[in-house]
């Protein structure tokens, strides 16, 4: 079993070939190919975690599409002062399909 732990969009994800992951928005259009930085690489019994050897590991992914995350409602309230604030947020996301780990 071959998989890698990659750093993408401020998070670390465990990926193998064919996986589809969702990360924070990347500056790439649908159909583009991006390279992700590997933090750990596992190939059967061999585990690579040395920084020099990880520089040689390439994890390629194809941008499938861009989407928006679920709505998050933020509410603030202070008792006895009449202060109420409500705002929402939707994170911009990018969906990636892992095409190759070498």
Automatic annotation (TrEMBL):
Signal peptide: none
Record key words, sorted: Ribonucleoprotein, Ribosomal protein, RNA-binding, rRNA-binding
A Pfam family that the UniProt record links to this protein: Ribosomal_L21p
GO cellular component: ribosome
InterPro entries, A to Z: bL21-like (IPR028909), bL21-like_sf (IPR036164), Ribosomal_bL21 (IPR001787), Ribosomal_bL21_CS (IPR018258)
Coiled-coil residues: none
Purpose of the protein: This protein binds to 23S rRNA in the presence of protein L20.
Subunit structure: Part of the 50S ribosomal subunit. Contacts protein L20.
PANTHER family, per database record: 50S RIBOSOMAL PROTEIN L21, LARGE RIBOSOMAL SUBUNIT PROTEIN BL21M
Family per record: Belongs to the bacterial ribosomal protein bL21 family.
Protein name (database record): Large ribosomal subunit protein bL21
UniProt source species: Brevibacterium pityocampae
UniProt gene name: rplU
């Amino acid at each position: 079993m071959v998989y890698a732990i990659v750093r993408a969009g401020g998070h670390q994800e465990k990926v193998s070939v064919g996986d589809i992951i969702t990360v924070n928005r990347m500056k790439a259009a649908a159909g583009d190919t991006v390279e992700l930085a590997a933090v750990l690489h596992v190939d059967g019994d061999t585990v690579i975690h040395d920084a020099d050897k990880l520089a040689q590991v390439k994890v390629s992914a194809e941008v499938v599409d861009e989407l928006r995350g679920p709505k998050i409602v933020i509410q603030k309230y202070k008792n006895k002062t009449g202060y109420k604030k409500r705002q929402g947020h939707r994170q911009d996301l990018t969906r990636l399909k892992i095409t190759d780990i070498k």
